[in-house]
Amino acid sequence: MRSLLTILAVAASLWVAVLLVGGLEFDGEWWQFLIVAAFMAVANAVVKPIIKFFSIPLIILTVGLFLLIVNALVLQLVIWFAGPNVLDLGISSTGFFWATFWGSVVVSVVSWLLGMVISDD
Question: What pTM was estimated for this model as a whole?
């Protein structure tokens, strides 16, 4: 049940990011959006810790600000994997850095807010 709530929270945060950030676009069905959210949850659980481990010196040097770049890299990986060239799930980004960077900031903030609402009970 907890993993389903996590996927729904990630889907909601991705939806808000697509609405707010110019350059992030989604033109698929609602079920494709849930698959993209599941990929995002898996990438956050598997790929993100690996990237964080290998970038520990940069994270320390930038006093944690490099974690914003790590989040953008994970989002860009998900967009590439679910984009029109690989799985064609309807999500795309017009530019790598700024659209993905701001999209990852929105996803992080909305996920954090939803995580506060969803309790561990």
Answer: 0.83
